[in-house]
Known about the structure:
This protein is an alpha/beta fold. Helix content is about 40%, strand content about 15%. It has helices spanning about 15-25, 45-50, 70-85, 105-115, 135-140, 160-170, 190-195, 220-240, and strands spanning about 5-10, 25-30, 55-60, 95, 120-125, 145-150, 180-185, 200-205.
Amino acid sequence: MSMRAVLEVIALDAEDAVAAQAGGADRLELVTDMAADGLTPPVGTVVAIRAAVDIPLRVMVRLADGFSSGGAGGVDRLAGVVGDLRAAGAGEFVFGFLDGDGLVDMAAVERVVTALDGCPWTFHRAIDSSADRDAVRKQLDGLPGLDTYLTAGAAGGVDDGLPTLVAEAARAGEPGYEQRIMVGGGLRLEHVPPLRTAGIDAFHIGGAARSGGWSGAVCADAVAQWRSVLDGLSAQQLAV
């Protein structure tokens, strides 16, 4: 059985996508405007990236900074955006909305899930800013298409969230914990060994895939370094 870890890289444009694939990325997350922590990219960008690479990609569904859906009007817009993205060839998505109590905005999430019509999706780092991580998982349990949580374990990043990530990995298979944990948010190579030991097999990088940080494009060599570390750890586990 393969133990290859999944490496997802944030791409802002086709140049990023090509470099990420060349470096060994398994999947892309497509966004725009990282100053707002990643918003929905233009449809034209999605089309260009889909034409440039053949690895899977997940498109962000998020129209404003923060984790609010924007109320009834915002939810209508989100559903419309999903329709446009699907018409452009997108088949996988990333999103997450919280209500005023810091729990899942179920009306918004369910509306978007309906628009997805079975497409796979990730609940992103909204979980790290929620009032109750376990409650979030229980709220979302059973929604069609949800297969991944993108999380750092804490709002402050993986440095703060590592114990939580390890504890949640130990609950794999419990109700609300069947989905894959994909770690991202201040992730560094030194975090990978303890996360792999805990059974986590999916990793998400953004600035770490760029030799000049967010001021530069994705660097194939930077992605390849992550790929090499992940593959080396997987090989060690297979040998045990």
